[in-house]
Each structure stands twice: as structure tokens, then as C-alpha cells.
Write a structure and sequence with these properties.
The chain is of the alpha/beta class and about 300 residues long. It is built from 10 helices and 11 strands. About 40% of the residues lie in helices and about 15% in strands.
Amino acid sequence: MMLLDGKIASQAVKESLKTTVHQLLMDGKPAPHLAAILVGTNGASETYVASKVKNCEEIGFRSSLIRMEESIEEALLLDKIYELNNDAAIDGILVQLPLPKHISEAKVIEAINPAKDVDGFHPISVGKLVQGLETFIPATPYGIMLMLEHFNIETKGKHAVVIGRSNIVGRPMSILLSSNLKHGNCTVTLCHSHTPNLKEICLQGDIIIAALGRPEFVKADMVKEGAVVIDVGITRVEDPTAKKGFRIKGDVAFDEVSTKASAITPVPGGVGLMTIAGLLKNTLQAYGLKAEGLGQKA
């Protein structure tokens, strides 16, 4: 069984980016600049954003963290996004999700300049992805593709089963795996909460992408021998015996599934690290668009 270690794969991506940034600085150019907006004090969001900022610093990117009160009016948040859209020093913009209930995530996502949409959530980015055009790929699916590439996982002609149909992971993942790409060309089955016979479908999968947000949902009896298993889930499960009072669990029962899989990602230490790698790659892409004079175009 091969452990698809996100630490190893993400470090390879970051080393490449670090080299690129070093060359930019040697040429007298500024480093790429990522702006992150954090609304409220959600613990998980705090952790995610802090990790993104830390990784930017590690490879030499500039980063700005903009904190806003949870009670902020939607209009004020949109005003800040428009301000960042028009700031030539900012290459990429992300707004950490989820947002408070009184704020429309759709309005916020659509307010971001598509040329700075490093999360890849804007409808224009999604539309280009569907059409196979160059665009920003949502960071988690992008990170998974980078992982498949790093570990040279064969995908051509394979049956991929994606569990979960979110716009952040499941849907774009199904598009990428079915696309005519080096690590695509799969036949894809996209499953969700209303899929009958889910176990039987999973047992047909050469590759399983579990992205439904239910801890240890995928058991060994749902996985065929030799399958590649990618666990996107990351849920805090209360555990009084743990130092922090909780443990991080994925959507896959790792201990039992790993005995059948030919390759599997750990949680933590797997897809989460690759998500940040995908975000950093997108930020460099946004920087390149600006350099080509395309940065303010939709």
C-alpha cells in the first residue's frame, strides 16, 4: 500500500514555487500577493487561514489577512472586495468560507474579480472549467490532481467514483477526472445522498474520492482490492482522551480501508496540505495574468 503523503507532495510544489519567487525577486519584480478575508472567529476557519498565511510566508509570497467582525453588514464586506479588486498590488483574493448566515456566499463569490479568483469559485471560473479552458481550478480538486501527478497514479480508462456533489470539491473533481488530461480520462460516477446502491457502486471504483463530510463513512466493505482512495473529509470529532478534546477524522475508515487500497491519503496530512498547494499555484497564475495585462479582465 502506498501512502499518498500530502507533506511530501505539497513540499515538492512549494519548493518549485519558492524557486520561481526567488527568480522574480532577483529580476527586481515583486512577489505574488494574496489577500485573505476572514469574517468572524470560527475556529476551523482561523486554523485554515493561519495555515495559508504561513505557507505564503514560507515560499516568499506576500499576504494580507483582513479580519472582519461576524456582525459586519454584507454591503461593507462587498465594498472591501471591490477595494481589493481595484488594488493593483493584490494578485489573488479569497474569502474564507463559511460566512455568517446573514451574508450571501453567492454574492460574495460573484463580487470577486474573476482574474483574482484564486479559490476558483466564481461562475466564470467554473464555466471555463466545464469547457476545458484555462482557468482557476478550485483549490482542493486542483490539489488532488497535483497529488495524482506527484505519485504518478494511473487514471486513464479507470472508473472513478466521487462521493459528494459540492461545488467546492465533488462537481469540479468529476469534471477534472473525466477531462482529457494526463491524470484524467476516467469514467466518472458522481454519487450523493440520494444515490441508491452506493456500496455496490463504490465497489466498482478503481479510484474513490470521498468528499461528503461524514467521518469514517467509507468502510472496507465498500472498497475493492487495489483501489486508490482519496479522503477529502476533515471533521473534528469529540474525544475526551485527546489532548485538544477532539480528533480529526476523514470520510474514510483509514485503518481498515488501508489494508485493501493500493494507495490512500491520510487525514490529517493528506488532501488538506494539497489544497493549500493548489491555492498557491492559483495565486502565481493570477500574478502571471496581471503581468500579461489581463489581471483586470473578466
